[in-house]
Amino acid sequence: xxxxMLGNQAVxxxxxxxxxxxxxxYPGTPSTEITEFASTYDKNEMYTEWxxxxxxxxxxxxxxxxxxxxxxxxxxxxGLNVAADPLYTASYTGVNGGxxxxxxxxxxxxxxxxxxDSRNHAIGSKVPMLEPSDSGECKEFTKxxxxxxxxxxTPVILRLSTRVAHSQSIVETEDRKTVRYEYxxxxxxxxxxxxxxxxKHIIVEERTKKLxxxxxxxxxxxxxxxxxxxxxxxNGAAYQYxxxxxxxxxxxxxxxxxNPLPVKLIKDFAAKVKKLYVxxxxxxxxxxxxxxxxxxxxGKELFTFIGEYSQSYLREKILGEKDEFVQLDDVIPVRPPVxxxxxxxxxxxxxxxxxxxxxxxxxxxxxxxSAVPLxxxxxxxxxxxxxxxxxGFNKAMRGEYEGKAVAVIGDSTFIHSGITGLINxxxxxxxxxxxxxDNSITGMTGHQNNPANGKNIxxxxxxxxxxxxxxxxxGIDRVRVINPGDLAETExxxxxxxxxxxxxxxxxxxxxxLLKTVKHKPPFRVDRDKCKSCKACMKIGCPAISMVDGKAxxxxxxCVGCGLCTxxxxxxxxxx
Amino acid sequence: MAETKAIMxxxxxGQGTLLASRIxxxxxxxxxxxxxxxxxxxxxQRGGSVVTYIKYGDKIFSPVIEKGETDVIISFEELEAxxxxxxxxxxxxxxxxxxxxxxxxxxxxxxxxxxxxxxKIRAKGVDITAIDAxxxxxxxxxxxxxxxxxxxxxxxxxxxxxxxxxxxxxxCVPKKAIDINKKAFAxxxxx
Lengths: 576, 191
What we know:
The complex is a heterodimer of chains A (576) and B (191).
Chain A: E1 2-6, H1 7-17, E2 22-25, H2 32-38, E3 47-50, H3 54-66, E4 71-76, H4 77-93, E5 99-105, H5 119-125, E6 129-130, H6 135-152, E7 156-161, H7 162-165, E8 167-172, H8 187-190, H9 194-217, E9 221-224, E10 230-234, H10 236-246, E11 251-255, E12 257-259, H11 264-272, E13 275-279, H12 285-292, H13 311-319, H14 346-355, E14 358-360, H15 385-396, E15 405-410, H16 411-427, E16 433-438, H17 467-473, E17 478-482, H18 487-499, E18 504-509, E19 525-526, E20 545-548, E21 551-554, E22 574-575
Parallel strand pairs in A: 2-3, 2-4, 4-5, 5-7, 6-7, 10-11, 10-13, 14-15, 15-16, 16-18, 17-18
Antiparallel strand pairs in A: 1-8, 6-12, 9-11, 19-22, 20-21
Helix pairs in contact in A: 1-2, 1-6, 3-4, 10-13, 14-18, 15-16
Chain B: E1 5-12, H1 17-30, E2 34-39, E3 49-57, E4 70-75, H2 78-84, E5 88-97, H3 104-107, H4 117-123, E6 127-131, H5 133-140, H6 146-158, H7 162-172, H8 178-190
Parallel strand pairs in B: 1-4, 4-5, 5-6
Antiparallel strand pairs in B: 1-3, 2-3
Helix pairs in contact in B: 1-6, 1-7, 5-6, 5-8, 6-8
């Protein structure tokens, strides 16, 4: 059967066909749908779960591989930093059942905090890396990754990009075949003490040589000869852009295996073409390899390290051709993403702005609290950094900011890596105030269940972390739960905890307005006679409220009746 | 050899561009084309500007569409039609919902929503059709069916049998919403 599939969906199909039996991931755009699609298959055949973070997911998958079953985990590029620790040593132990880790880079930073190139992790961990360029290859490369994993006794990384992960193209499906290995205790292979790891490192270096040999003839790497005036060495989405931009005006060496890179194959291709280009998004990894083997291609001197490429970018850079287009003379206002109407985070950020405190921010929907008009955020680095960063900030300020600084972190992010930061606050003692924004879901990535909301990936009941008890048990005595939909309660609670002479946690608990289980009230409306045009209701930055003909007006297609705006209006002009 | 054709669906997060792209992709696939559909997730429900690229032909390489490359832009909102106008090919066509949704800079009073955008685009010599898809969607039973109203409208001129569209609706729309969406499609097709 053939049909259109997202790249991520095709990876999930590949897992199923490859007989994978264990999948564990943490959500992260653009990788999330791999695991969501994996969970749509029979869980008795291919068990799937959301783990608390990428490190746990990766370690769980390694455990499943030790057990002799084909295993898998998926993450976004920054997630691989979290999972790097187990990956680098799993490279030494190798596998029993095949183990594949998918990582999705975000060229263009559509929804990420940096633009790192995951190929650096493949080189660092000495693990082979495959990179598909469309959905068909996503499925084929996934299956091939398991064969390589078992043949060469190594984890294999499958590298995606936003374009490959989130583009649909045609995929042919095949049947599932299960491959299993017996578990046998093997301390020299699986216990990485120095005595065992030293000989293992030798094996890893030999393995890289063998993999490089494999890369010379593997069907993963493909030569397409047309006009030999221009030769392009390329990978992933960049291959598709180059192929469209130059068609048969150039020849191509498409590298589907991006680590380790072949030598003879590249030299042979270079010898057949007049002008050699390396077209790779982000870092200059293929180009550097070419220089190491004595070639002098045109690479990053012409093409940028930054963002996504495209056919028109390459046409302009290589052929000097520019696209023609029409545009209006008007300035088109930007339309940035905003907190949804009814978002439970809105009241918290309004209050933080009103209080004028330092806000140590984190990764999630609530990072939108940094945008106008709320602008209530000072820093955002990575998952969990709000809590640990606030501690460092407060220590360095010698307590001066303890009464005017908070951390904000979502429920899922807190579970991911906020807990250890909170332990540090209690253990090394700062009187820090941490706000856990508990909306009962992992929101930004599109609603995944998590260990704090009492449901597993299948929506079945699961144990739920008791956040209040957890915070108390690590040494925080002041823990309270508030309703962030109540502005007076929110402000009073934050003020009280800021002045408290000990660390505290405020759990702001209200479910995401987009959850299907949340019952909404009918839209509110403005009584134009009562409205005094003071614009107080505009301060909360709700996309449903705007000024029309001098008076506030509520868009009834957007309003979900949360009632936050009614608490802003001193004239009672907003009615149910 | 069929030339590569490019369609863009543009709108505001939450307007249902993803469902519309699935319906279109389904129709094109049933017509035997190579098809690529590209979308960016993550911010899609947060009220930001969203875009989906759809390309079809004998063999499609790049899944993205660049400036000056689009045959048809289907816009779910007037300002978005103007924003993505540079992506239209010379001689291309725009179908837009006449609905206006204020972006945050307009809501906050920092910028004005430009007036008369449809006329200004037409004045540039562009073939643009505007319809009030929101009213038709509400008539069909849900303001959320704007996406399918626009699919109904495009189905008139796209040149594929109506049966293919109906099949695509059956396959892509959740069962409980199928009646409203079939009605919305019919209203768009009659418009």
